[in-house]
Amino acid sequence: MRDLRIAATPRSFYSDKRSNGRVLIVGGSARFHGAPVLATNAAHMTLAALRVGAGYAITCVPKSVVSPVRKLSANLIVRPLSGENINRRDLEALKSEAKRSDCVVLGPGLGRERATINAISNLVSYCMKQDKKLLVDADAILAIRGKKLNKKVLITPNDKEFHNLSKAPLMDRNARIEATKKLAQKLDANVLLKGYFTVVSDGKRTKLVETRSAALATMGTGDVLSGIIGGYMTLNRDVFVSAVAGAYLHAKIGDMLYKEKGYHIIASDLVDYIPNVLKKFDKTTY
């Protein structure tokens, strides 16, 4: 719980939604529409201090999936992009939204079309030039190949995505820890390696977050993790602290849900459970 206490940000009594942080989530394709919604739920549902703490969230998805995304929740603010998949024609709109945001989350459900990855690569470069906090997940990880990142960037690969970047073997605990640290150093960024235990490193600091069950081994839970961390990143300068807190909260909720539902949870269960853990850390300043 110490990690959650460190990352908790008091809310001013006189604040409004825009002063409590703005998250931009970019994802979706004609094939995958659920992932960006789950990621957005984890960050967006913070509007009334019910989730992590961000005050405002907007989701940019291709127009081909706008309707099903909007139908999942009336709380979602959805901006349609140009086609079935994200492409270079969307860059002007995406850069405009990114410029106004405190944190940008890229990746859920993007797909691997070349035009999409090229557009996301361009957006990553823009966000770094604008000194934005940036979380790169899932298919968006393909867009950082060959790039030198910075300490405001967090990548959140699974084992396969990690291996594609580092070529390092991930056979045991020590190998995973060392490989994560080395990749963080190589990229000059923060790395969160997902798995049966999660490793977070900025190249100097390294922390492990363990779960006690396999309840989180189901689709969509990694996208919720990205949304949780994105919410933390809006109000915390230290991306490493946000990543550790998000990973801990994610694991803690997974363990609590396992006691209630066994191996029968879905990703949205995690979103709904966030206030049960975080409400004890809520503070108001005057």
Please give a quick description of this structure.
The protein is α/β, with parallel strands linked by helices and 286 residues long. The chain is 43% helix and 16% strand. Helix 2 (34-44) runs parallel beside helix 8 (221-235), helix 8 (221-235) crosses helix 9 and helix 8 packs parallel to helix 10 (267-278).
Number of helices: 10
Q: Under CATH, the topology is which?
A: UDP-N-acetylmuramoyl-L-alanine:D-glutamate ligase
Question: What Rg do the Cα atoms give?
Answer: 17 Å
User: CATH superfamily, please?
Assistant: Ribokinase
Tell me the number of strands: 11
> How can the largest sheet be summarized?
9 strands, mixed
Shape: globular
CATH class: Alpha Beta
Helical residue percent?
40-55%
For the record, the count of structural domains works out to 1
CATH architecture: 3-Layer(aba) Sandwich
First CA to last CA: what distance? 25 Å
Poorly predicted regions are 41-50
- Provide the structure class: alpha/beta
Overall pLDDT confidence:
87
Q: What series of H and E elements makes up the topology?
A: HEEHEHEHEHEEHHEEEHHHE
- Lateral arrangement of strands in the main beta sheet: 4-3-2-5-6-7-8-9-10
Beta-strand percentage?
A: 15-25%
